[in-house]
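Task: sequence design from structure.
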């Protein structure tokens, strides 16, 4: 089996594992924030925090041992636009509240028969393509050129290195500070400590982020046939999947497309085996309109922010890239705005 084929197989397997874990646990940043803010139930949010801590520790270990060149990833580029990334994150955050779930969650729910998610996924893919390569691309690139900066340091370890400590020590310190804080937050709640399913989901999904980096950055590394160094992400991969479905004869499979297919396959299999598969649709026209608006915001916002609640929230932050912190701040701010201002209206429309 040639190396690109191995990457595709592993991408599908990683996606399938995510589909299983996501369906069984309800893993979702939006659900975690909503439960934490409105129901005083922090288990899902703490599961997300644990996944992030595991992803950070594993990803930084890969970078520290030289197995994966994280600097080649999208998240650690030497220049970026903070306003564009934050605005994109804000749009994504509001969108995932309106659509009642992020891009990855919609894909997982589609596997259990949620037909609302089919429309959401399709619009995310189209909106992302329009923003990345279509009608909105010139405006996005113009804003990027006007507002981008090239700071001397683009990651937390690099910033810590300005205090005169070595690269390895700075990396370890960053993992201990950020990852340690996340673990402390996750385990500080008795209800979470008593939820083995949520703990397992956090551990597994964090390790899947690491597996994605290892697959594209080490197993798939080839100087003669280079591929993007990346891990779990869903906005651009959904757009690529739609494009591949339409023009497959002129395209080749990628890690992202295989990941999307794997998530759907894992979710479908789990739903069927556990008896959770059931067809669902929209409850009202306003419910449908809000889902469409939310999906459009997620597609365009995710393209502007270079990722989603998984792509930036787990994969991007696992590199400890400063732009990823900006994107996640925007996503959380957008989710807060949506949950506090729009969620009650959305709930009424869904009845």
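Answer:
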């Amino acid at each position: 089996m040639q190396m690109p084929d191995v990457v595709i197989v592993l991408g599908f397997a990683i996606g399938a594992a995510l589909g299983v874990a996501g369906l069984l646990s309800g893993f979702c940043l939006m659900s975690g924030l909503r439960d934490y803010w409105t129901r005083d139930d922090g288990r899902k949010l703490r599961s997300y925090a644990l996944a992030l801590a595991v992803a950070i520790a594993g990803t930084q270990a890969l970078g520290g041992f030289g197995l994966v060149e994280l600097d080649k990833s999208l998240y650690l580029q030497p220049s970026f636009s903070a306003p564009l990334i934050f605005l994109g994150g804000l749009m994504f955050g509001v969108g995932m509240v309106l659509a009642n779930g992020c891009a990855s969650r919609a894909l997982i729910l589609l596997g259990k028969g949620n037909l609302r998610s089919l429309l959401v996924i399709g619009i995310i893919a189209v909106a992302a393509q329009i923003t990345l390569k279509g009608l909105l691309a010139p405006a996005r690139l113009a804003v990027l050129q006007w507002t981008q900066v090239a700071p001397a340091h683009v990651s937390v370890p690099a910033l810590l290195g300005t205090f005169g400590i070595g690269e390895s020590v700075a990396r370890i310190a960053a993992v201990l500070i950020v990852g340690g804080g996340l673990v402390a937050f996750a385990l500080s709640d008795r209800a979470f400590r008593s939820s083995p399913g949520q703990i397992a989901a956090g551990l597994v999904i964090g390790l899947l982020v690491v597996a994605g980096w290892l697959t594209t950055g080490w197993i798939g590394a080839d100087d003669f046939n280079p591929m993007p160094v990346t891990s779990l992400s869903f906005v651009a991969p959904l757009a690529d999947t739609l494009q591949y479905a339409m023009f497959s004869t002129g395209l080749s499979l990628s890690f992202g497309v295989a990941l999307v297919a794997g998530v759907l396959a894992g979710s479908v299999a789990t739903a069927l085996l556990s008896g959770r598969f059931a067809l669902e649709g929209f409850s009202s026209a306003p419910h449908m309109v809000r889902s469409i608006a939310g999906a459009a915001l997620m597609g365009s916002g995710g393209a502007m922010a270079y990722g989603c609640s998984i792509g930036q929230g787990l994969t991007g932050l696992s590199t400890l890239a400063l732009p990823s912190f900006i994107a996640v701040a925007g996503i959380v701010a957008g989710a807060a705005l949506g949950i506090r201002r729009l969620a009650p209206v959305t709930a009424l429309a869904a009845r």
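The chain is about 75% helix and 0% strand.
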